[in-house]
Amino acid sequence: MTREPANGEAPPGYTPTAAEPPNGQPDPPSDIDITASFANLAISSDPPTGIPNVDTTLAHLKLLHAVHSLKEDVGYNDGLWGLWDDRADKDTDIILDGALPSGVKLDSLSKDEKNKLALSRLREKRWAIFLARAVDRYEAWWNAITRQKEMLTEADMMKTRGSRYIDFPTSGAPLPWSDDNIPPLDVLMVMHAHMLNPRAFLEDAIRTNMIEYWTAGMPWLPVNNAISTDFSYNANDEAKTNWVARTGLNWDNQADSMTKEFRCPWCKGGLKVPWTTCGTASEAKGTIGNGYGDGNFSHNCPSCRQTITKEVLSLSKFIKDSSLVLSKSVPMPGTILSMVSGTPEIVPEPPYSIIYSRTFPNRLIQFELRSKILELINPQAQHPSMVDVRELIEKATKDGQVIRKLYGNYSRARRAILPREAKVATAR
Hints:
globular; about 5% strand; GRDP-like; two-stranded antiparallel ribbon; 4 strands
């Protein structure tokens, strides 16, 4: 309690004052127009190089915010993919399909809390299917651009100049990005994620000869132009027309077919598989599902009666890559860039190429595992997967006779020891 002054005078008046901001810096003005700042960014039309400037960084933030808004729109789109919110209080499997938050026990949750958790799971599921379809759409765009291109060969990796390998990172003409050819927002999102792993992005670009895409980088100017101050993505009609013409897909992810078309890895027959079974069948329960975009994909081919799973599809992709190294000498993924620098590094010409460790996996497939890998998916195989590939590789790399055959009379092959660098390249 405050005591009155002894002389009977009234205490001094109290006028509140604002606390000094930390470090003596003045508070920011209260009338800053954030949207105006985002609306007037000076983005160069040239491919980005070096450290991003302030405006490019703000354009990046605009993209991230637009993606976040997209995620909210998709998650709260009741009925999307056949997933309706009214299942939240009926389908207990929705809650049981996923791990509960740390320290939370199902029995301790009230009915309302269980309902909110189930609604959250349904929203996450809608977004997960949307993401799977977005990746597929990005691959369709990539394949449309590379369809007429010649892929990298092992011979390209031995050329010291004028090569689409050693000169690739710095010699290309950029893809002419514009407001009229940018892809949909969901595809931009996957494109952005791909570029965030520069090593994988560079290797994929070199292998498929996507030099103009690598050189251009992210199309920040047209992306910035397409994102309004409320962070909605509004590309022009020309961009939408060009996208449909190039890929054969709709501009909107949700407008594409609810079935995925591909060839059966077993019999090569055409298939149409649902993206999700969680909302397509009347008896569907939970959010796991057996569709192409679900977490437990499984489909029986109507032609050959074989079961197709994600494991079989992964193996099929490896077999396809192996076929390319056998038929066209296209190097396997993981053998293209230096393991140290992550950049192209010339492969020595014969006879020294036989002891070059980074390309050992290519030689292993070409001269030892060729038919063994190509025949892994066959009618007699029981649940084939990449585990079978790993077992074949481990057996071959532990066989001194195989190592001597692949290395000839060079290096440590006389002692049948696989060099460490070759082991690392094979593991990739």
